[in-house]
From TrEMBL:
Protein name: Release factor glutamine methyltransferase
Gene3D superfamilies referenced in this protein's UniProt entry, alphabetically: Vaccinia Virus protein VP39
GO cellular component term of the entry, any: eRF1 methyltransferase complex
Domain of life: Bacteria
Entry's Gene Ontology BP terms: methylation
Organism annotation: Pseudomonas poae
């Protein structure tokens, strides 16, 4: 069971998404307080990463009955794991969105696997586009973790792309996605609500927040603070991205040289990055 043997360790437990042996096998993740979520795997939907487990752990630790009895929005739900976790904890007003129709279909399957009756509102949506302008008390977002790739890397990714593999936007273009999310967030967040966002240091956290500050001339519509930080090993998520490991490393090196990404490499050449859980909220008068 994930969330137990891997909890607190530095080993790489992640199974590649196209592992044929694993595709039809449900797996379970433990988050604490006796709560676990069962999931099925699909070849073009992310298996929950260690970062996703860390974010789920934080939700269990931090959300109180007031939060659980209020509106909850999970953006980029993927397998639906965080929305399902909120329902396990007693949430009864849960909305989950994803830009990928296959992810939403898989999330609905996973809700059926964990509960007898469906109650979560699932929508295909690019960030907030598919939603009416209602406000949510808690918004959770685990965005794509890597920056916009160079044209040469895009060509390599597209050349190696195959049916049933993860789409490029599922992990790249994170800097663009997060900037759009932050610009739209104030309209959808309750005045007393919080948005909990998990950011990968390979996306360029300093660059994103600096541009956010500059956009509003430091008169920010939202305030933010770092809640938790974890160092995690790089994984490649699919075999065809793994095959591009050399080119990915070159891309990461260019980003870091321009101060647009942060990571460390050990003596074996393995990359480690920082997973940072950041909380955004309205300024309180």
């Amino acid at each position: 069971m994930l969330g137990l043997i891997d909890h607190g360790s530095a080993g790489n437990f992640h199974v590649e998404n196209n592992c044929k042996k694993c595709l039809d096998e449900p797996y379970k993740i433990y988050f604490g307080l006796g709560q676990s979520v069962s999931l099925t795997q699909a070849p073009d939907v992310f298996k929950v990463s260690r970062a996703g487990i860390r974010l789920g752990n934080y939700l269990v630790q931090s959300l109180n009955p007031k939060n659980l009895n209020s509106s909850f929005l999970d953006i980029g739900t993927g397998s639906g794991v965080l929305a399902l976790l909120m329902r396990k904890l007693g949430g009864n007003d849960i909305t989950a969105t994803d830009i990928c129709e296959k992810s939403i279909a898989q999330a609905k399957i996973n809700e059926h696997l964990n509960f007898k009756q469906p109650t979560i509102s699932f929508f295909v949506s690019d960030l907030f586009d598919g939603l009416s302008e209602q406000r949510f008390q808690t918004i959770v977002f685990n965005p794509p973790g890597w920056r916009t790739p160079s044209r040469s890397l895009i060509q390599r990714l597209e050349t190696r792309g195959r049916t049933g593999q993860l789409p490029i936007h599922s992990m790249f273009y994170g800097d663009e996605v997060i900037s759009r999310f932050l610009n739209e967030l104030p309209k959808y967040l309750n005045p007393t609500g919080v948005a909990i966002v998990g950011l990968n240091s390979l996306v360029g956290i300093r660059d994103i927040l600096e541009r956010y500050n500059q956009k509003y001339s430091n008169a920010l519509p939202l305030t933010y603070k770092l809640i938790e930080r974890h160092t995690l090993p790089l994984i490649h998520y699919s075999t065809h991205w793994k095959a591009l490991e050399k080119h990915l490393k070159l891309e990461f090196e260019k980003w870091q040289a321009l101060d647009l990404a942060t990571y460390s490499t050990d003596k074996n050449g393995d990359i480690y990055w920082s997973y940072e859980i950041i909380e955004f909220s309205h300024h309180q008068k």
